[in-house]
Amino acid sequence: MKPRLITFKKLSPSFYRQPTLDVAKALLGKILVRSIEGGQIAGRIVETEGYIAATDAACHAYRGETARNRSMFGPAGTAYIYRSYGIHWMLNIVTEPEGEAGAVLLRALEPLETLEQNLHTLRRNRANANRALEKKLTVVQLANGPGNLTKAFAIDRRLDGVSLQSDELFIATAPEVSATDVVVTTRVGITQGRALPWRYFIKANPFVSKGRPS
DNA sequence: GCGAAGATTGGCT
DNA sequence: GCCAATCTTCGCC
Questions:
Q1: Distance from residue A4's CA to nucleotide C12's C1', rounded to whole Å
Q2: What is the pLDDT of residues A60-117, one digit of tens each?
Q3: Labelling A23: which of A59, A65, A73, A171 has CA 20 to 30 A away?
Q4: A100 burial via Cβ count (<10 Å: 0-12, 13-18, 19+)
Q5: Sign of torsion over alpha carbons A9, A142, A109, A48
């Protein structure tokens, strides 16, 4: 039975004030919600990575504040969005107190099938009017990578610096994922900080991205 | 002012 | 497995 309406409860600001790696772990299982024209789209977070400026050379803010990474220095619980490889937008959740920089990269989502029109809207966003692609995309492919999920959720630089207490983009509460179901590895696609085990994903979840630890 | 590199993806060999 | 696509930012000349 698919409910016609789902009420989402936003994670409180205090959730994001936990240490970065605690937030990265605790975000697993939570629901990313995006309000756009035509309704809400949502997905369950199944893969994250932590980045901490103070000790982590892979973090964009390791060498201090710049124009690009400015929102990472803002209050915990805001969005940090940047362009990757000239092609993809990456969505991060800012952590650490204002003035210090840290963030959690959202790497993969499991689309909610119980939300009306959700898969249809995600497919449309991913395919971007390409009818052939729209038909080909499986549910797994809709948001199983950091660049794919921003495309599916219509997320770009316009949302950089937005508070996650806003209605257009927020994260909703959901039952905690059991510690035995969380897998910890090193991060994907980086050249610095390769040894740090700061990637988290839900064990055996088919929506986790295909990126291998570097 | 300019060049190199990047927290990726998908298609082809 | 390898590689191109594409563009913004940063760091250095």
A1: 57
A2: 999 999 999 999 999 999 999 999 999 999 999 999 999 999 999 999 999 999 999 9
A3: A65
A4: middle
A5: negative
Question: What residues does each domain of chain A span?
Answer: 13-201
Q: Which nucleotides of B are covered by protein (CB under 7 A)?
A: 5-10
User: With a 7 Å cutoff on the CB, does A212 touch strand C?
Assistant: no
For domain A13-201, give the fold: 3-methyladenine DNA Glycosylase; Chain A (3.10.300)
**pLDDT one-digit tens code per residue, A35-75:** 998 789 999 999 999 999 999 999 999 999 999 999 999 99
Task: Give the nucleotide at minimum CA-to-C1' distance from A85.
Answer: B6
d(CA A190, CA A171): 26
Helices (H), A79-159: 118-127, 131-136, 146-152
Q: Is the pLDDT of residue A2 over 60?
A: no
Rg (CA), chain A: 16
Give the C-alpha separation, A33 to A50, whole Å.
20
Q: Is the CB of A87 under 7 A from strand C?
A: yes
